[in-house]
Amino acid sequence: MTAEAKIQIGRRLRRKREQAGYTREKLGELCSLSPRFIANIELGDSTFSLDSLMTVCHILSCSSDYLLFDKEEGETPLGRGL
User: Fold this and answer.
1) What does pTM read for this prediction?
2) Count of CB atoms within 10 A of residue 52's CB?
3) CA gap 76, 56 in Å, rounded
4) Contact 52, 31 (CB under 8 A)
5) Cα–Cα separations (whole angstroms), residue 4 to 9, 15, 28
């Protein structure tokens, strides 16, 4: 995964977290992750494990496609011009 991809994933995570009204501490508590780990993902310094990704998506009510690829549910690559 490229550094730019990690940064974009982190930005989308932060956007969803803030839209949900959660601090890093609260999201970490709900997902059994440390606030520092959440911060590292948001800054593009760390990546999710599959289990962590699934948990975060469940808590934030978003798809993994959104966090990883900036695709909303039901959107196909063809719809994005890929």
Assistant:
1) 0.87
2) 17
3) 22
4) yes
5) 9, 17, 24
Only one residue has tokens 């690829």, namely 69
- Check: CB of residue 57 under 8 Å from CB of residue 67: yes
Half-sphere exposure of 13 (CA within 13 A, CB side): 30
The answer regarding whether domain 3-70 maps to CATH 1.10.260.40 reads yes
What would the pLDDT profile of 30-72 be if each residue is shown by its tens digit? 999 999 999 999 999 999 999 999 999 999 999 999 999 999 7
Both tokens of residue 12? Answer: 């989308």
Residues 6+ apart with CB under 8 A from 25: 35
Name every residue whose Cβ is closer than 8 Å to that of residue 47 and which is 6 or more positions away in sequence: 1, 6, 9, 41
Task: Give, in order, the Cα–Cα distances in Å from 5 to each of 12, 20, 30, 37, 70.
Answer: 11, 23, 25, 17, 11
